[in-house]
DNA sequence: TATGAAAGTTTTAAATA
DNA sequence: TATTTAAAACTTTCATA
């Protein structure tokens, strides 16, 4: 699917504030309701626009600890990897997980209530799948946290 | 502000799909329109519910490279830190930035079109503020990427 | 907490450039 | 082919019971 300048403007508006009405978005991008509506529909169908969600205040809700977890493994077999990915996807405290190039194999972002909850997560994970080396980096301050792509 | 079980159910629904109507949310949490509406309004006022946004398909939009950047610095002065944080907040390719406890001082998540764009970002950053040591971890595969807190 | 009515929004369809 | 107009269906918002 081809995305033009108007589509990109619409996406920028939606990223900034998805609660805007079609009229507001249309005005912001210099178009009108129906064409904007059709473009949004097409981009949803194409999977370019995914979930509409809200960003919550993690601290206020008691999620006071955020860890970045660097994982090295000696296992590189297909079966091990399948089980490992399944474990990550199923654990709701894992907000992000990436397989990396190079020395470190995986990085996770884990949000939990406190350090004890992190330890519980860690123990559960290593009992499910064998990992070689784990380093946890504790966040002291969230300087920035956005999902908006720099369109 | 105190959050009860019904509030938490509402937040779970909004995280899952913020485009739902009040009626749908009310049904899902076992309540009705008006109370749900009042609870959402209060949580927005209290800042517990923040931006409403959409998650976009980064790959489809040409953002094919994602790096986690580990930064060590020798500078710990207030002025240096202020300039560094400002630089991070202003750069749209920095999606996340955390100050860490321990050996590594900062971690960034940076989304760019390609490796060349990452290098341009890196050169611009180090020309703005002095950093001691930088390690970039390149993501090969996004296994999971959610903003939903495990409520 | 529930009801309901006014205001506003989305969605579809027909008309027009 | 894309945009504007128009109108029906639905949703939000808020006053009142």
TrEMBL record, chains A, B:
Keyword set, alphabetical order: DNA-binding, Transcription, Transcription regulation
Pfam families tied to this protein: AsnC_trans_reg (PF01037), HTH_AsnC-type (PF13404)
Gene Ontology terms describing biological process: regulation of DNA-templated transcription; response to amino acid
One CC-aspect GO term: cytosol
One MF term in the entry's GO annotations: sequence-specific DNA binding
Cited PANTHER family: DNA-BINDING TRANSCRIPTIONAL ACTIVATOR DECR, LEUCINE-RESPONSIVE REGULATORY PROTEIN
Protein name (database record): Lrp/AsnC family transcriptional regulator
């Amino acid at each position: 699917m081809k995305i033009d300048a108007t589509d990109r403007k619409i996406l920028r508006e939606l990223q900034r504030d998805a609660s805007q009405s079609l009229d507001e978005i249309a005005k912001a991008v210099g178009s009108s309701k129906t064409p904007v509506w059709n473009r949004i529909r097409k981009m949803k169908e194409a999977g370019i626009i995914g979930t509409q969600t809200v960003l919550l205040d993690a601290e206020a809700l008691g999620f006071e600890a955020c860890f970045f977890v660097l994982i090295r493994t000696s296992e590189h077999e297909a079966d091990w990897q399948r089980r490992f990915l399944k474990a990550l996807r199923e654990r709701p405290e894992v907000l992000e997980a990436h397989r990396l190039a190079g020395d470190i194999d995986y990085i996770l972002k884990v949000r939990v209530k406190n350090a004890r909850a992190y330890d519980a997560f860690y123990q559960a994970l290593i009992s499910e799948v064998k990992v070689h080396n784990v380093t946890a980096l504790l966040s002291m301050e969230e300087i920035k946290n956005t999902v908006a792509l720099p369109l």
